[in-house]
């Protein structure tokens, strides 16, 4: 994988075919998607596409995406399933391989600086517990532990209904809300395991709409994009 400097933390081309001049005139916004060890991570490629498309179609935004995926998340989608343009995948291994010596950029700090917004979709029960208590033992949780709390952050829980209904979940969700995280509640349906109930991640298009609307609101308020 290319280094941070080589990638420049952005991709050179838009999702839709646009003339170079048109692309240069579009406001650029940067989204960090966090993917964790829920089967709902199979929808990460769809979420990335929907954010890019809705950003362009609804608000005329050129959106670049970085994905910070846990090792468990990578069980559910492959790099080649992601859009070829405007999306860069980072893993826990990249956190260590990018850093060679004192003075080199630290990936989780670079991602924190780069992104205008973070959406963790899906947020599994394990990562929920980590973020609510400040644990930071992988790339994504390190980004969130270092997050600029003036920037929006959204989580989309996804877990078995019995895990969602456990008392500790309510406590941890309340903690995340207190810390300023927006929470897109799960929905009730038949889950991949066959159980029926509340716990499935919200639909990617619905999540994308919230993310894109938040970016548009930042633009309307004159909020400068991340450096």
The oligomeric status of these chains comes to single chain
- Order of strands side by side in the largest beta sheet? 3-2-1-4-5-6
The CATH class, by name, is Alpha Beta
Shape: globular
User: Which regions have little confidence, pLDDT < 50, spanning 5+ residues?
Assistant: 1-7, 9-16
SSE series: HHEHEEHHEHHEHHEEEH
Please, what is the average pLDDT?
90
**Corresponding CATH architecture:** 3-Layer(aba) Sandwich
End-to-end gap: 23 Å
Major pleated sheet: 6 strands, parallel
Give the C-alpha Rg.
17 Å
Structural description of this entry:
- Keywords: Coenzyme A biosynthesis.
- One of its GO terms (biological process) is coenzyme A biosynthetic process.
- It holds the Pfam family Flavoprotein.
- Residues 30-214 form the Flavoprotein domain.
- It contains 10 helices and 8 strands.
- The chain has a 6-stranded parallel sheet, with helices on both faces. It has a two-stranded antiparallel sheet with strand order 7-8.
- Helix 3 (44-59) crosses helix 10 (204-220) and helix 6 packs across helix 9.
- It has 227 residues and is an alpha/beta fold.
- The protein has helices at residues 4-7, 20-25, 44-59, 92-97, 107-114, 125-133, 139-145, 161-164, 167-178, 204-220; strands at 28-35, 62-69, 87-91, 117-123, 153-157, 182-183, 187-190, 196-200.
- The relative contact order is 0.17.
- It has a single domain, classed as Flavin prenyltransferase-like (Rossmann fold, 3-Layer(aba) Sandwich), CATH 3.40.50.
